[in-house]
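Troubleshooting log. The previous structure file for this entry was overwritten by mistake, so regenerating from the original sequence record. Sequence copied from the archived sheet and checked twice against the printout by T.R.
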Amino acid sequence: MRKFQQTNDFNEIVYGRRSIKTYDPSVKISKEEMTQILEEASTAPSSINMQPWRFLVIDSEEGKQKLAPLSRFNKEKVLQASAVVAIFADMNNFDYAEEIYGKAVELGYMPQEVKEYQLNAFKPLYSQISEAAMRDIILLDAGLVSMQLMLVARAHGYDTNPIGGYEKDQIAEAYGLDKNRYLPVMLLTVGKAASEGFTSYRLPVDRTTVWA
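Regenerated output below.
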């Protein structure tokens, strides 16, 4: 996969990020580059490395038109953006345990005996875990990958806006996904800003932090 020009200045990536309200609709992001963005975002940490995040990339006109009525308070952003990434959390994420740990052994990341020890320890725990506890785990992990995705997109020169206000009870089925398995986390619009966006005030650290 070819490398793309990225913005590597830390201050520009972190402090320059804005929640963008308007996008340049003429800008397209290739499937190749979006794949790279998602690969880089997917290096985010997750509980026992189960990587429960699932991405639905909506970048066709047909796909965005389907999404528009489900995100009516953010319709213009959805239609203007180069892509909208719908981020889900997979309740059946442990189905991938053997693949993840087996590949780690194959690549030399862990020895076979460590894989067997860990899976033997995790399998009974995950087989008995409550639905509420699983939701807590995977929504936390999906939140981590979502923030990383915003920063990675910024490093690639794109702007983003996270959206929580949409029809979460309808979006999975609208795109042919099992709504009981895939929990909606957020929509993330991605593209080139058509306006600067607004700088917002952040509380100073001494207002949000306690030292112990």
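The chain has a mean pLDDT of 93. Archived copy saved in two places this time.
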